[in-house]
Fold this sequence. Notes:
By secondary structure, this protein is an alpha+beta fold. The protein has a single domain, classed as 2-Layer Sandwich (YaeB-like fold), CATH 3.30.2310.20. Helices cover about 45% and strands about 30% of the residues. The chain has three helices and five strands, in the order βααββββα. It has helices at about 10-25, 25-45, 90-95; strands at about 5, 50-55, 60-65, 70-75, 80-85. Strands 1-5-4-3-2 form a five-stranded mixed sheet. Strand 2 (about 50-55) and strand 3 form a beta hairpin. Helix 1 (about 10-25) packs antiparallel against helix 2. It is globular, with a radius of gyration of 13 Å.
Amino acid sequence: MKTYTLSIRAQRDIEKIYQYTTIEFGEPQAESYLLGVNDCLQLLSAEPELAHNISDIRLGYFRYLYRKHSLFFKQRKSDILVVRVLHQQMKLELHLTS
């Protein structure tokens, strides 16, 4: 069974999302949002073809939209590597580096 692994940057992204959402909307909403992100990543690890191939932007990368965030990942043999979790208003060229 495939799963997902978070890069250090993706971990930091999720921590920042949690902090922001907690401050703006409360802890229950932050927890709910991150549970949704987790569910989405579990689904993508099992069915990565649901995501859009964005090799034209970054070779080997895929993107899936979850609410206000884009989940970026690469496929590997035993899992998907989540490289970033970026808000839709963030400029990819500044944040989506190798």
